[in-house]
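sorry to bug you again but im stuck and you know this stuff better than me. what follows is a protein written twice so to speak, once as letters and once as structure tokens for the fold. mainly i need to know what kind of three dimensional shape the backbone takes. anything you notice is useful, everything is just below:
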Amino acid sequence: MISSRIVCFLSAFSVVIISGCGFHLKKPQPLPFKEIQLQMSGCTQIQNALHSYFTSQKIRVKSKYRASRPALTVHCPTLEIQPLVYDGEGQLRRQRMFYAFTAEFTTPQSQSYTFEIKTTRERQLNSQQSLGDAAENTMILKEMQEELFHQLSVKLSQLTNNANI
């Protein structure tokens, strides 16, 4: 007869193997077009980051309008910080960050879709490490921007598949 420890171990091991971690789902979605017209309303830093993102996806970014190619207009992102927890001295200890932008995607068939992409993070603050908090804040904003671009990629894939581009 098999011991209960072995059965417990095998059960736990199979749960871990079957569930997986999901990192394979974080890969950028392949987009079904080879070039895109990118327009921004200001926000040079985000425009440069989006340009780099599309280029890394092997998509040529064009600035001149041509009705035969898809167009993406991205409005400046917003960052909102919501205080969550204060300590006894009135110092902020935990906050929630919201990062979002609105975009409009136009297909070569002139179908237009407006949508919002957003992400949220919570972070713990430490008054003894203000320099570390600034570096962590920069890292979190970069991660949030990457998440926004990933969500944008998924949304554009959905829209182009629905529009049969």
Q: What stands out?
A: The longest strand covers residues 92-106. Residues 28 and 124 are 29 Å apart (CA to CA).
